[in-house]
Design brief:
The chain is α+β, with helices and mostly antiparallel strands. The chain has a single domain, classed as Arc Repressor Mutant, subunit A, CATH 1.10.10. The chain is built from three helices and three strands. The chain has helices at about 5-15, 20-35, 40-55, and strands at about 20, 60, 70-75. Helix 1 (about 5-15) packs across helix 3 (about 40-55) and helix 2 crosses helix 3. It is globular, with a radius of gyration of 12 Å.
C-alpha cells in the first residue's frame, strides 16, 4: 500500500469540522476493507495523518498520538494574490 493511496483515503473521510483521530482512522480502515478489499495497518494510517498535519493538509487539536483524545480537520487550500 503506498502513501498516496492512504493519504487520499484520509482526506476523503476527514471533515472540515473537528473529528477524533480514532474516528478518522476507523473510517479509513473501513474504506479499505469494504471498498478496496485491502488491509492497512492502523499505525500506518496514523503515521500518514501525522504527515498530512506536517504538510499543512490537516489541522490538529491535542496530541495526535493519543487517537481518542485528539482531533483533526481538513484544511481548505486557499490561494493568495
Amino acid at each position: 500500500m503506498n502513501d498516496a493511496r492512504i493519504d487520499e483515503a484520509i482526506l476523503s473521510v476527514t471533515p472540515a469540522r473537528w473529528a477524533k483521530v480514532a474516528f478518522v482512522i476507523a473510517m479509513v480502515d473501513k474504506k479499505f476493507r469494504n471498498d478496496l478489499q485491502e488491509k492497512v495497518e492502523l499505525d500506518s494510517i496514523a503515521r500518514r495523518i501525522e504527515a498530512l498535519i506536517q504538510g499543512g493538509r490537516l489541522a490538529v487539536q491535542g496530541n495526535v498520538k493519543k487517537w481518542r483524545y485528539s482531533e483533526v480537520r481538513k484544511l481548505e487550500r486557499t490561494t493568495f494574490r
